[in-house]
Predict the 3D structure of the following.
Amino acid sequence: MPERQANVHTPPGLRRVLREFGVSPRRSRGQNFLVDVGILARILAAAAIAPGDPVVEVGAGAGILTERLLQCGARVWAVEVDRRLCQLLEERRREWPQAQNLHLLCADARKIDWMALAEAIRVELGKSARERWLKVVANIPYSITTPLLLTFLELDRLLERVVLLVQREVAERLRAGAGSREYGAITVAVRSRFAVQIVGYVPATAFWPVPAVESAIIRLVPLPEPLVPEALTPVFTRVVRAAFGQRRKTLANALKAAAGWDERAEGVKKALEAAGIDGRRRGETLTVEEFVALARELRDRLGGSGVEVDKDLRKDL
């Protein structure tokens, strides 16, 4: 049996396959490969893959998750930046009976035009522009977690669900409660559009090479309607940035100093009162719903513009 057909679900088998293609895992790219079949099964169960489901996988690596997605009947668009791993995937797909359902994109996920990709997939599959139809299932490189999460905010009206294997710390930030140390801008941004669930925790030993951190499986399901309408997004973004960029200041002072409303203190005060929020509170104590209410009152009283979430919030995350 050629080495490339070795069992990639065990560290020795995976090492043999990678060695054949001259691949040494790169820490800079977060190349820790999942080799625990039990964890793979939990990811697939969380994703609820049905035959014909369109799935985008980011960081396909050696194709360990890719192969299982295909076996479940998914139509997979697999993104992988490492050209050596792309070559490995092209070789491995020859062994897969469902290979015709695999579209391999050798590209940097941070540089993909995601809206264009989603539209191309939608047209190919004949999906309605009004329905949620796309799934994202991935063991993503941890270094690009935040940029990808912010990208998914833009795609929320297309997504049926997102299932990711992420660093445990990130998972707990997304589920954190207002006022806790873990609660931050990314928490508020994601939960304004998605319901977040931690499906389970994953030990470092489930990967090869073994990373220095624990991981978690998270499931994001878009809210029926986002808490932040598109027209409110610019002001909402300014409020969130101000609150978490000036943690040591009271909310009233943070808004005046960081959001550019320093000359309109009375308007800020009235907006806080109308939203039922004490301006002496720290910004990180506000719930997502309170941020939305405050943004709405500030917009109505002060107007204001801002930049989109993906170009704005990521500066602080």
The longest strand covers residues 159-167. Residues 3-222 form a domain with the Rossmann fold fold (CATH 3.40.50.150). The beta strands are 33-34, 54-58, 75-80, 102-106, 134-139, 159-167, 194-202, 207-208, 215-222.
